[in-house]
Amino acid sequence: MSKQILIVDDDPKIAQLIEIYLMNEGFSIIKASDGLRALELMDEEPVDLVILDIMMPGLDGLSVCLRIRENKTTPILMISAKDGDMDKITGLMTGADDYMVKPFNPLELVARVKSLLRRTYYQTQPKQQQADHIIHVQSLEIDKLTHKVMFEGRVIKLTPIEFSILHLLAGQPGRVFSSEDIFEMIWKEKYYETNNSVTVHMSRLRDKLEKEMEGEKLIHTVWGVGYKIEA
Known about the structure:
This is Response regulator transcription factor. The protein is about 40% helix and about 20% strand.
């Protein structure tokens, strides 16, 4: 079954352009021209990824993203004509997994959609093999097969990017990963110095973990070097 993408944009020309390119890659498409309709579709339809415009009348993209993140970890690719660093940071802090500036190359958008979907995909394996995919760190259980993170029996809801970062660090406890290491291993793209995606996602991840773990710090900063989880 093909993956279903929800396109949320009040500009019908942009929405149609995205739709054409994604349908050519075999994706199923549903569309919404406003934020409220987008939220309705999220409840009515199986959605594998959301392409979400920020600037829309009524309920804007940032508000929609926050509402989705209340109970869903569906990958979100945010698009906007705003190209400032703070605009990107704001988008990522609300829960988006990636951010693209208009006008964008449709082929690059398709590539990013595929990349986000790859990060959320896992292949079902026999139960006896599942233990090989579970990492225990302190009181935390990280299961790569189900993309679940558990703390004392409770699920900690993480986005696909947040899960990937946590799994990377937990898989090699004691090793310090620089922002460049993390970006290139998770995003599979070349890192550039002004890129703050790692910092933003790391901040959100740590906030969620510390909130659920009652203040217990799992990820440590090695100043001037990077991040690690203690062995």
